[in-house]
Amino acid sequence: MDPFVTTGTDNPALSGLRGRISSAWNDLSKSERAVCRVLSSTSAEHLLYASAAELGAQSSTSNASVVRTLQKLGYSGLSQLKQEVAAPFSSSVSPEVRLKTRIEHIGQDLARIQQETWDEAASLIDLARTSNDDSSYSAAINLLVRADDVYCYGLGASGIAAEHLALRLRRTGIATRRLSTDGFRLADEVMNLSARDALVVFAPGRVTRDIDVLLDHAQLVGANVILVTDELHERLSSRVDATLTAPHTPTGLTSESLAGILISDVLVQGISAVAPDAALRSSQLLNDIRSRLGY
Predict the structure, then answer these.
(1) Which of 100, 200, 206, 229 sits a CA distance of 20 to 30 A from 137?
(2) How many CA atoms lie within 13 A of 190 on its CB side?
(3) Is the pTM of this model over 0.90?
C-alpha cells in the first residue's frame, strides 16, 4: 500500500475511515488515493467543517472526486462521514468548546457563513432522504393512521420537531397530543396512553430517563412506538415498532430539528394520500373556524 500520513486520534470514525482506506487502497485510482491521503491526515475537528470543495482543493482533485472516493469507501457521501465523526463530540466535548471551534473555523466572512450553512443543510436533507426508504415511511404511516390518539414527544431542540408533527397531524384529522413536559409531570400526560394509541419519540442520540420510562410504559400498555433518531436504531430497535432516521447536525451550523421537521412533513403528506377524505374534512373545518375568528 502506498503510505499516507496518519495522526493520533481517539475518534473511532477516523480509525474506521483509515481501515476502509487500507482495505480499498489497491482498487483506488490515482485521484482517489490523493483524496484518501487528505482524509487520513485531517483531524476530526477540521473534517467536521470541511466541504467537498475544500477537500478537493487540498487533494488537487475536485469535489466530485471526493464524493466518488467516499462512496467507493462505502459511505453515502461526506455527510455520513461527518455524522460518524461528530458522534463522540456530542458526549465528550462541551457545547462551549464546540461553539468556539465553529466560530474559529467559519470566521466572520458572511459569504462563507451562508455557503457552509446551506451546504450542510443540503447534505443533511440528502442523507435523510437516502436513509429512509418507502417501507420505513409506510410502517410509520400505518401506525399513525390506525391510532386512536397519537402522542408526540421530543426533549429540547427535538421538541420543535415533535410540536411540528403534532400540529400537522391534527390538521389531517388525527387526534394528537404533544407531550410538553418532562420529569414528574410527564406521568400525568401519559396516564391515558393505551394499546390503541401510537407514541412518536424524537430522540437523536441520547436515551434520557424520561424516554426510557416512556418506552417501558408504551410496551406495558401495548401502544405502538415510532422512533425518529440519528444514532439509537440498534440500541432501541427491540423496543419500537417503526424507526426513521433524522440525521443530526454535525457542526451546529443548522437547526438540530431540521431533518425531524422534514420527516414529519413526509409522514403528514403520506397520511393525506392514504386518508384524503379525513384530511379534507379536517382542512375544511379548520378554515371554517378561522373564518369565524376573523382570519
Answers:
(1) 206
(2) 30
(3) no
Strand partners, 205: none
Same domain, yes or no: 257 and 179? yes
| Amino acid letter, 71 | Q
Cell numbers 487502497: residue: 25
Judge if 272 and 172 occupy the same domain: yes
Residue 5 belongs to a domain: no
Beta-carbon-side half-sphere exposure of residue 171 (alpha carbons within 13 Å) = 16
The beta-strand segments (E) located in the chain are 150-154, 176-179, 198-202, 224-229, 242-245
Residue 261: how many other CB atoms lie within 10 Å: 18
Residue 51 lies in a domain: yes
117 is a domain residue:
no
Residue with cell 399513525: 144
Examine the domain organization and report whether 208 and 284 are in the same domain.
Answer: yes
